[in-house]
Amino acid sequence: MGLDTYKMFDKIINISFSMTNMESVTFDNVFTPLTGRKPKIAISGKLIGNSTISALQLRITNYYPSQPLSNYKRVSITAGYKNGMYSTFTGEIFSCFISSHPPDKETTFTVIIGHQVDYLNIERKAEKVINKNYSKDTSNLVTILNDIISVIDGCSIVYQPATYQAIVAKMDFPQDINLSNCSASEAFLKVQEAFPEIAIRVDGDYIYVIEDEKGTGIIHSLDYILSARDDSGSFTIVAPWNPQIRPYDNVQANPIYFATLIGSMNLGVKILRVVNIDFSFATCSEENQMTLFCVRTI
Known about the structure:
It contains four helices and 20 strands. The protein is mainly beta. The longest helix has 11 residues.
């Protein structure tokens, strides 16, 4: 799905906060209406390939919290365009604070996509760690990955493409893997060290397992490009944000409009694999840009 001239500027950001106090869990929502005045909301961040953690920054103008900010624990953010091109980010609130004062008070939330307990070294509960060793002669990598996510509440594994699961199941072990007293993030890191041919990416409550060299197999058409640069085999592309693009997806400039050379590359012909994404996006300003860091596909 591509962008068109009108819908590229019809932007939405919908937010659902989860708040926890000593007695209960409650929710607070901020929505962009289909018509009428929009709330002033902005989101920015970096999505990193082969990483089990990413960070986003959410900024809301004139937001009046229903509880102390210290009670805000999780958030679900749906951002994109009214044409149906949008994406949802779910994560834990690492910090929140008032970043500017009235009359246009701005509240800033730093959101961690991943599982915060693994990164803050909070005291571990017995059910939140893995205590297993895996022999290279008898173990199956799919089984290990399933064991790891069993200690993460409500988390699922997605193989991209789906056929990659059968390949992962047959991979030879280069060594024994010791996951004694490991959190999920530590276990994923040990798996990545042992199997550099796979990439693991966390996106909300899903763990994506991807073939590092080939990517997800998903191809996005870039209908609008602001600039492109060839950096000796790697490529940097700046364009309006496409919220559905993720690391390890592939992108291709629309060949109807981009049959020009960027360095030695015909931008409208070559398919590139996305490694990292920087983006910023807002409902009520011109803020709408992503920078894709890409490499050639094999």
